[in-house]
Design a protein that fits this description.
Blueprint: E1 49-53, E2 56-60, H1 63-69, H2 72-102, H3 108-125, H4 127-135, H5 144-177, H6 179-182, H7 188-211, E3 215-218, E4 223-226, H8 232-236, H9 238-270, H10 277-306, H11 317-327, H12 330-339, H13 343-354
Antiparallel strand pairs: 1-2, 3-4
Helix pairs in contact: 2-3, 2-4, 2-11, 2-12, 3-5, 3-7, 3-12, 5-7, 5-9, 9-10, 10-11, 10-12
Subcellular location: Cell membrane
Transmembrane segments: 76-100, 112-136, 156-177, 189-211, 239-270, 282-305, 317-341
Keywords: Blood coagulation, Cell membrane, Disulfide bond, G-protein coupled receptor, Glycoprotein, Hemostasis, Membrane, Receptor, Signal, Transducer, Transmembrane, Transmembrane helix
């Protein structure tokens, strides 16, 4: 085994922001060359320094940083949350997609909801890899290619869901607040083209993740990390700009649009009186769900990559990873907030499995809107 001495003049959480040069470790005891970059002040994530040994690039971590990777939260709580999301989200989204695709009329809202179910299913499909990764103690045994694909699919489909939820909120806003103005262009064909644009956008925003190396072996640990810990130079440069743009363009802006849309819908429904109390509750539920699941992880990610405060020496890692796991719970919540809350949808499911009479139409929570008459469906 190689002897590799490191002396770090700071510990995780230190407020000393002065740059430093670590003890000379350009050679180990066997004379092999080890190259590392100078450590920059005030890292915004778990510090990871590159070291090339026997033509293999390793990541070097302070012992305090390694303890976060092996903590009970990381290797037990986080994969348990992902397992719960997988077990609940796979059947609920799969059934919802099947009912929407085979048992409902292809309306504007139906197109958006089908694509949302697909995005949630694709996100859920990569969770088994992350579950094994964390249960194995942050060890990625599936290779660099699959690490890149899993990382891209994870973030891509998560933010694709955000964009589709934004489309749904705007669709409902137009249906409630501007029903006559939007009638001419709120068509299934327009919804299909909008969804196609969303998927292209999701593919584009995750392309940078597939172009950078995502997995690195951890020195003296016999494990390979996947995306969770990256070289400090890339974290301060490439990923700093990438995630700042990602958060701004596909979270903060969509969140502002959703808040405006749903607040406008709530205002319109409240002005209509108690007749639409159920729709008001559903709209409020959708808004609360979005804020509860997506805001914590994105706020922490924004701080993680943009804060120059000296106290953030990787101390947000566990908090961010937990909030990221919680954000995937939205994939479990979507079917119940958007589909199963509807009595018509539940009747469709019952009629499918128990051969009961089919209902003539299907409304989801997004279609339970103020009508000109009680029999008219405004979609």
């Amino acid at each position: 085994s190689h002897s590799f001495a490191l002396e770090w003049p700071w510990i995780l959480g230190s407020r000393d922001c002065t740059a430093f040069t670590p003890t000379d470790y350009s050679q180990n005891s066997t004379g092999e060359q080890i190259t590392t970059a100078e450590i920059t002040p005030c890292p915004r994530a778990i510090p990871g320094e590159k070291a090339r040994i026997d033509n293999v690039t390793y990541l070097l971590l302070h012992e305090a940083a390694r303890s976060q990777l092996s903590s009970g939260v990381t290797v037990l709580l986080i994969p348990s949350l992902y397992s719960l999301v997988f077990l609940l989200g796979l059947p609920s989204n799969g059934l919802a997609l099947w009912v929407l695709a085979t048992r409902t009329e292809k309306l504007t809202s139906t197109i958006f909801l089908m694509n949302l179910a697909v995005a949630d299913l694709l996100l859920i499909s990569v969770l088994p890899f992350k579950i094994f990764y964390y249960f194995l103690g942050n060890n990625w045994p599936f290779g660099e290619g699959l690490c890149r694909v899993t990382t891209a699919f994870f973030y891509g489909n998560m933010y694709c869901s955000v964009l589709l939820l934004t489309c749904i909120s705007v669709d409902r806003y137009l249906a409630v607040v501007h029903p006559f103005f939007s009638r001419s262009f709120r068509t299934p064909a327009f919804a299909a083209w909008t969804c196609a644009a969303v998927w292209l956008c999701a593919a584009g925003i995750t392309l940078p993740l597939t172009l950078q190396q995502q997995s690195y072996p951890l020195y003296r640990a016999d494990i390979t990390l996947c995306h969770d810990v990256l070289p400090r130079q890339e974290d301060d440069g490439y990923y700093f700009y990438y995630f700042i743009c990602l958060i701004t363009c596909v979270f903060l802006v969509p969140l502002a649009v959703m808040l405006f849309s749903y607040c406008s819908v709530l205002q319109a429904l409240l002005g209509s009186g108690k007749r639409y109390a159920h729709s008001i509750k559903l709209t409020a539920l959708v808004l609360v769900t979005l804020m509860a699941f997506y805001t914590p992880s994105n706020v922490l990610l924004l701080i993680h990559y943009s804060s120059y405060q000296c106290k953030l020496y990787g101390s947000l890692y566990i908090s961010y990873m937990v909030s990221l796991a919680i954000s995937t719970c939205n994939s479990c919540a979507d079917p119940f907030v958007y589909y199963y809350v509807s009595e018509d949808f539940r009747e469709k499911v019952r009629s499918t499995f128990f051969n009961r009479s089919k209902t003539p139409s299907l409304q989801t929570s997004k279609e339970t809107l103020p009508q000109k008459s009680s029999k008219e469906s405004l979609v």
